[in-house]
Amino acid sequence: MGQKTNPIGNRLGIIRGWESNWYGGKDYGDKIAEDDKIRKYVHARLSKASVSRVIIERTLKLVTVTITTARPGIIIGKGGQEVDKLKEELKQITDKEVQINIFEIKRPELDANLVAASVARQIESRISYRRAIKMAIAAAMRMNAEGVKIQISGRLNGAEMARSESYKDGRIPLSTFRADIDYALHEAHTTYGRLGIKVWIMKGEVYGKRELSPLVGMSKKQQGGKGGAKKARRRK
To answer: Which stretches of sequence are listed as region Disordered (predicted)?
Structure first.
């Protein structure tokens, strides 16, 4: 079962939390569609800011958008001008007050979304896919990842028939629910078509209780003072 299922969805409510946090009622479908619109807009608007996740929390009159990024300076801008512009743009989508929290990713080499996007970007720049993948795996293992797996599918090197190749270092225990595995899928657009890139990163095993959504409800003071989310104890 664990081999076929999205590792993040498989761990929701166990060691992972949701990226949309609100009660929908009769407007559930409209809010889901609006969340999707917000995420697509943020990723398109901040395409150069290395954005990984967009977490949305709603109350009656306020929408809180928490952005996890490896380059917070690009989002904030000089004197906070850029983040103020983004807030006004999101207000037009939601028709509500918007609060934006920015959470810096200290080790982007261990973030599956950023790793997949980096590999895709290098392939689009005509760098060998094998070299890009092996460099990404080596960088993650240097940052104390317990295991990394990257799979690429499509017309590799312009081959007439599509195929898949996988590269792995360390262990990826997909059926162990306490294993903290990050997963992402990204696409590289080449002259021969699209290549699918899947990334699994094993960070450790979580023992005891863990806060499922540590970024939800976090104030700016908490983010700045403590450098982000509280970490659960992992066994190395």
So the answer is: 217-236
Distance CA 51, CA 65 (A): 13
The secondary element (H helix, E strand) that includes residue 165 is strand 163-170
Q: How many domains does the chain have?
A: 2
For residue 211, is it within any domain?
A: no
Question: Of 183, 126, 119, which Cα lies nearest the Cα of 149?
Answer: 183
Please write the tens of the pLDDT for every residue from 117-175: 999 999 999 999 999 999 999 999 999 999 999 999 999 999 999 999 999 999 999 99
User: 203-217: buried (b, 16+ CB within 10 Å) or exposed (e) per residue?
Assistant: bbbbeeebebbbbbe
Kindly give the pairing relationship between strand 179-190 and strand 193-206.
Answer: antiparallel
**Residue range of the domain that includes 151:** 108-206
**Residues, the chain, total?**
236
Q: State which amino acid sits at residue 12.
A: L
By C-alpha distance, which of 102, 64, 59 is closest to 82? Answer: 102
Burial class from Cβ neighbours inside 10 Å (0-12, 13-18, 19+) for residue 123 reads buried
Q: How far is CA 153 from CA 165, 166, 167, 207, 227, in A?
A: 7, 9, 12, 35, 37
Cα 210 to Cα 6, 152, 205, distances in angstroms:
20, 32, 11
What pLDDT is recorded for position 211? 73
Last residue of a domain, one of 82, 104, 126: 104
Is pTM beyond 0.90? Reply is no
What pLDDT is recorded for position 231? Answer: 42
Question: Cβ distance 145 to 203 under 8 Å?
Answer: yes
Domain presence at residue 43: yes
Contact 87, 167 (CB under 8 A): no
